Amino acid sequence: MAAPPSIFLFQFVTHNDAVSRPNEADELRPSETRVLVVDDAPANLSLLKQLLTRDGYSVLTARDGVYALEIVEREAPDIVLTDVVMPRRDGIDLCRAIKANPASRLTPVVLVTSFQGHEDRLRGIEAGADDFLLKPFDSHELRARVRSLLRLKAFTDELDSAEAVIMSLARTVEARDVTTEGHCQRLSKLASALGLRLGLSSPDVAALERGGVLHDIGKIAVPDAILLKTGRLTADEFEQIKQHTVVGDRLCSELRLLRRVRPIVRHHHERLDGSGYPDGLRGADVPLLAQIMSVVDVYDALTTERPYKPAFPAAVAFEELSNEASRGWRDQHLVDELFAMLQEAPHSSA
Question: How many domains would you assign to the chain?
Fold first, then answer.
């Protein structure tokens, strides 16, 4: 009997080669690499363009920081080499603007300058510069620095691509079940908002935002016949459902940038009294981020319509969550904070 499509997809993603690693051939594809050179001196601009074009790069040019920023936003170059002293917008301010934009902040920026003072380098570092090149520069050094930064950029792009694949898979899982449409987005929004309310760090809040989307990604390994079943699950079927937390953790383990998300994915079905799964954790051993996701997950399930139940009012959901807290499953403080937050929100129905 053929395996369901979701199983094939799961096997593909968890294969060791699923997330490709840049190699020497992949890193240095000059013909596909766009370098932006910014300098108000035509002679310098011409020299840099000639050197980099000789290596096969596609070279874009700009004579001031204002026009350069327009090119960055429009063309998304792979690296920017910029003079520091320029009219309208200098190189340090250009660098700061590039690094402030989420769409371009990972683009390497090299400041090409004749200044050797400690204060000038500090200004560049504070603006986010990735490297410095002193004038007059050595052509071999210039080319080596460009190659080195482009190599790092290739690895960064691979990580971004891998995360995009994982996030797309998570949305594919949600799309399989029309009754849970929007569930992941709601959890992402609620959990991160609750994390902010609790005073968690920015990385933890970001993990909650990602975790809302990724918490059920392991269900990609659950056959449709079980995942979409409207009747009561058998014991064996429920055991397969429970494995989605372990599978999801394994999927996320491929990426270091998801290390804060993994406890959410693996432990959002744990209960404080040890009766949850997959590891039967108790009390403080249940990660806080997983506890937060668990509370908002139950709230969203209760307050949205499903084939087997109507959408309950927020007050009923609060009562049910409080009952679960009294049984030792949840932290009552988290339940209270969630509902206080919902009541304070504009147009709240809590």
Answer: 2
- In a shared domain, residues 189 and 148: no
Residue 255 makes CB contacts below 8 A (sequence gap 6+) with 19, 159, 162, 163, 166
Q: Are both 182 and 215 inside the same structural domain?
A: yes
CATH code at position 89: 3.40.50.2300
Residue 34 lies in a domain: yes
Q: What is the pTM of this model?
A: 0.60
Residue range 39-78, pLDDT digits in tens:
999 999 999 999 999 989 999 999 999 999 999 999 999 9
Which pair of tokens denotes residue 153?
A: 């950029």
DSSP 3-state of 292: helix
Residue pair 55/143 in contact (Cβ under 8 Å)? The answer is: yes
At residue 341, the 3 state secondary structure works out as: helix
Residue 38 bridge partners (DSSP): 62, 82
Residues 6+ apart with CB under 8 A from 233: 226, 241
Cross-strand partners of 110:
81, 131
300 located within any domain: yes
Check if the beta carbon of residue 167 is closer than 8 Å to that of residue 214: yes
Domain span including residue 261: 177-344
Q: CA–CA separation, 247 vs 293, rounded Å? A: 18
Q: Are residues 194 and 101 in the same domain?
A: no
Alpha carbon separation from 125 to 91, 101, 135 (Å, rounded)? 12, 17, 18
